[in-house]
């Protein structure tokens, strides 16, 4: 009965993943259509501003991913339950993906607007630092000599690394920056056209669904990895064979040691010599 229940749960999980995948694709497609054909071009930047509808959601989802890493790491340090470590590493991998996408899209946007693919702007520099912190988080997990140390060390990095997230967000306020200031998460009303804001929020929804789908897949893979590792560790080690004790055989007044059938053949030869 337990096997049947487990199979039904697995089928339900796969069905939910398929629905989530379809919803993600539909939301991404709607964002692409709205961003390319519905909203007007920006009055100053023109069509290149349309990158905002994927660049900004990617940045927000990177922040969300690293926030989940921080919360899951705190939960692991408090409870010691491995499932929180599994959530943290899954979100860290997805966060690194979104953060890299943010930097790439920002470079594509900056080339026609700033005249350069890259500049050591405070927002860009702090974002690269954020990416390197969580790349180091994933690298640290490969050098730990035990599962417990791996989880503890990476949890500390996951908590401390999140400090850079508010620094990235506030960098355009604290320092002189080429990067434009916040237009949505700011004091007062958003300074955007209504159709642009609606398309931006649709992009955020689409990327949030993509994050949720990737998390469900990665957590399932993580559970399978832990199960496989536990199965290997629980197998008993093969027992070494015990060698037979040699039997003394007297050959011509000399004691020779041999085993098994060789002892019988040696005894026969000894009998022939004695005869």
Characteristic terms for this protein:
275 residues; mainly alpha; Four Helix Bundle (Hemerythrin (Met), subunit A); 2 domains; two-stranded antiparallel ribbon; 8 helices; disordered N terminus; disordered C terminus
Plain-language structure description:
- Strands 1-2 form a two-stranded antiparallel sheet.
- The protein has 2 domains: 2-234, Up-down Bundle (Four Helix Bundle (Hemerythrin (Met), subunit A)); 246-275, no CATH class.
- Helix content is 72%, strand content 4%.
- The longest helix has 41 residues, at 194-234.
- The protein starts with a helix and ends with a helix.
- α1 (2-38) packs antiparallel against α7.
- It is globular and about 55 Å long.
- It contains 8 helices and 2 strands; from the N terminus they run αααααααββα.
- It is mainly alpha-helical.
- It has helices spanning 2-38, 52-79, 82-114, 122-140, 147-161, 164-174, 194-234, 260-274; strands at residues 247-251, 254-258.
């Amino acid at each position: 009965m337990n096997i049947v229940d487990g199979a039904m749960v697995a089928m339900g999980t796969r069905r939910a993943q398929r629905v989530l995948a379809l919803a993600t694709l539909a939301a991404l497609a709607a964002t692409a259509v709205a961003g390319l054909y519905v909203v007007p071009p920006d009055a100053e930047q023109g069509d290149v501003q349309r990158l905002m509808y994927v660049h900004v959601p990617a940045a927000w989802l990177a922040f969300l991913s690293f926030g989940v890493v921080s919360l899951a790491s705190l939960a692991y340090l408090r409870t010691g339950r491995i499932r929180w470590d599994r959530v943290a590493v899954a979100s860290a991998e997805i966060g690194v993906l979104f953060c890299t996408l943010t930097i790439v899209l920002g470079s594509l946007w900056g080339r026609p607007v700033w005249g350069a693919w890259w500049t050591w702007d405070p927002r860009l520099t702090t974002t690269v630092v954020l990416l390197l912190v969580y790349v180091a988080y994933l690298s640290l997990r490969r050098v730990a000599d035990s599962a417990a140390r791996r989880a503890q060390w990476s949890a500390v990095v996951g908590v401390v690394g999140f400090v850079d997230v508010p620094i990235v967000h506030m960098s355009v306020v604290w320092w002189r920056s080429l990067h434009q200031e916040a237009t949505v998460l700011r004091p007062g009303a958003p300074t955007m056209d209504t159709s642009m804001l609606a398309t931006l929020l649709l992009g955020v929804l689409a990327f949030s669904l993509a994050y949720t789908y990737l998390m469900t897949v990665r957590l399932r893979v993580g559970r399978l990895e832990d199960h496989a590792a536990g199965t290997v560790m629980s197998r008993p080690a093969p027992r070494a064979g015990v060698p037979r004790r040699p039997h003394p055989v007297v050959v011509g007044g000399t004691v020779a040691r041999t085993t098994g059938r060789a002892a019988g053949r040696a005894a026969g030869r000894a009998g022939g010599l004695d005869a």
